[in-house]
Amino acid sequence: MLLITATQGDATFEQYAIEAMLDRQVDGVIYAAMATRRLTVPPAIRGGSVVLLDATSSDGLPCVLPDDDRAGRAVAIGFLDHVDGAFIGALSDPVPVRYHPSTGPILHPAEADAAN
């Protein structure tokens, strides 16, 4: 059986949900956050099988984290495969970039010198 609850950050409801799950003798808990962050794991579940999803803690519990760098790179390459050019950087100082699927980013020589 799989029990899922979303507490929306309500500590009182979270405590109630944890107690309800423990009353049903769950085998383990996947304690998830909506955005990657360090969090404090409720004491009631620290003694059992718990895995953190999209979070870490000072308790040394096992966790599963997203690979944001690789995901961002995949999105950028997918985007650049479908456009003729793009601007990378702050809006006040953008660097024009052309992208070729087989060779990668191609900077205009003047912009390449400025970028280095």
Entry keywords:
alpha/beta; 3-stranded parallel β-sheet; 116 residues; 3-stranded antiparallel β-sheet; elongated; 2 domains
- Biggest sheet, spatial arrangement of strands: 1-2-3
Total beta strands: 6
Query: In percent, how much strand structure appears in the residues?
Result: 25-35%
* Count of alpha/pi helices: 4
Q: Please write the string of helix (H) and strand (E) elements.
A: HEHEEHEEEH
Per the principal axes of the C-alpha atoms, what is the gross shape?
elongated
Ordered list of secondary-structure elements with their pairings:
Layout: H1 11-23, E1 29-38, H2 43-46, E2 50-56, E3 63-64, H3 68-80, E4 86-88, E5 95-100, E6 104-107, H4 109-115
Parallel strand pairs: 1-2, 2-3
Antiparallel strand pairs: 4-5, 5-6
